[in-house]
Fold this sequence. Notes:
Layout: H1 15-23, E1 29-34, H2 41-46, E2 50-52, E3 55-58, E4 61-64, H3 71-80, E5 86-88, H4 92-105, E6 108-113, H5 121-132, E7 137-141, H6 146-161, H7 166-176, E8 184-186, H8 190-194, H9 200-208, E9 213-217, E10 223-225, H10 231-241, E11 248-251, H11 255-269, E12 275-278
Parallel strand pairs: 1-2, 1-6, 6-7, 11-12
Antiparallel strand pairs: 3-4, 3-5, 8-9, 9-10
Amino acid sequence: MSSRGTLIKAKIDDMVIQNNITEKSKLRIGVITDTIADLPDEWIENYQVLRIPLQLIVDGNTYVDRYTVDGENLHEMIQKASVHPSSGQPGEYFIEKSLKFMLEHFDFVIGIFVSSKMSGLYDKVKLSADKINSSRLHIFDSKTNSACQGLILHDTIRMIESGLSPTEILSTLDKTLDKYHIHVEIPDLYYATKSGRVPKILGSIANMFNLKVIISINKDGKGIVCRERSMKQILQRIEKSHEIENYVIVHSDNLQDAKAYAKAMEDITGKSPVLSMKFLPL
Length: 282
């Protein structure tokens, strides 16, 4: 479609989930997030998680994350782009409409969004939430992204299912958000530096020496390069810590390594991952 003209507008309402919620909300507490969080379709459907999609802008064409672009065509689009793609967020009207919709159908709504240091979406959502000014709505900056954000959502849903009150859930999240960590093994930092997730100076040094690096996110929500130079070293550190309650494994078209790391984590923790899936690296 983009080869024939510029995409001006894309429909971004997740009508299936909204229709399910409208028919009957399954839980007293609703959950809203963004499409950066890695969540399997069955979680989204079973727990009626509403997602606010980010946008990918490629050569003037706007694609909607998870709706009009996916992992199958993303890499090809990036390679063919005349300038490096950028990301964007939906407008204030759409965000406010989504929050109000959730408040209409749930007794309380918890929002968990991608790190504010990596995207402007959290700030836009918070602005809309402040405008609505409801005591039944609480928005969190996850200070992370991707699979780690998905794990926070998983644990939040489990707390909701267990019958904890909104006050108890909010208190737990306040105390535990900084205990979630993400480690990503990537062959180079080209795209991470282009997108702003990793400082350019670190990316330049790593690429100069052709280093395979592990990136993470610090407690402030900013992308960093780990001191460890391999996932094996990360696994060794995890084995020494004995502090893993839950974990997830995601990959970008590298199922073989994902299975190997899942096996290693099972050996260390005695637990299977709560989630293992392919993700869209927007």
